[in-house]
Give the backbone structure.
Amino acid sequence: MTATRQHAEELVEEFSDHLELDVEEVDEQLSELVDEYTLPVEEAVRSLRSNYIEDAGLESEDALSSNDEVLVNEPDEDGQWVDIRVTVTDLWTPNSDSIAQVGLVGDESGENKFVSFETSDLPELEEGESYLLENVVTDEYDGNVSIKLNRTTEITHLEESVEVGDDTEEFDGVLIDIQSASGLIKRCSHDDCTRVIDSGRCSEHGTVDDPIFDLRIKAVFDNGLETTEAIFNEEMTEQLTGISLEEATAIAEEKMDTGAVMDEIFELVHGRNLHIEGPRYNEYLLVDEYGPSHEVDTTAVADKVRSI
Ligand SMILES: [Zn+2]
């Protein structure tokens, strides 16, 4: 066997999960680089390998090595290539044409957000079904690490169901404050971004001309002993306040100030004594259920709030 032939076989094997390479063709390309361009064979291999990494849409050589299989809530930094074994627990409507699917996947560690893109051209995941997802990459934003599928992701449907652990937390307390960037907010409309924009600008994409409106409350709850921060999404905010996204937009237009929505919401919700439930992402409890609370001594909280 020639030296180039052996290297060609190794390259084909190395990229077998990502590209359909032909040993003959790779061998020919290597020979051409070595014979005609007089590159040392190692140099020729390195050159072809970096082309293939690009062709495969991989960000670096690290993505090639076989990944660790991890729990969905284990990764804690951006850009980690991993395999996960999960059940799809929720799918919601993407807010951008570039997104094929967005939702939650879970395993024993609880749930995490995932997204897949139209350009990746992957088979659709079904809610309630379990899958082995190989070669997914983590995406960190605002301290939250979520899962991105990409065109190198391999999806295997699993017969056995992956059990999803309960990472729900509860808190009983009085809603003592709402934080800025509550009420009617604008999100970046750039593909796959959704960052909250400040003064018309996205920290990543600059000026945003056609922002996506969203409604939420970032609330602070106090039970007299400790506080917690919680986020009510659009649906939960509408339930809690009776104000829909359309109504919020109308209020903002009428007052010519999005801040008017936050003021109105504050009047409606502050001082309410609630039991809230949901998964926790960093400092925020993401409320997916709430009701009146009967556990908290509201006088104690009132005394404490008054003393601040
Ligand atoms: Zn953006």
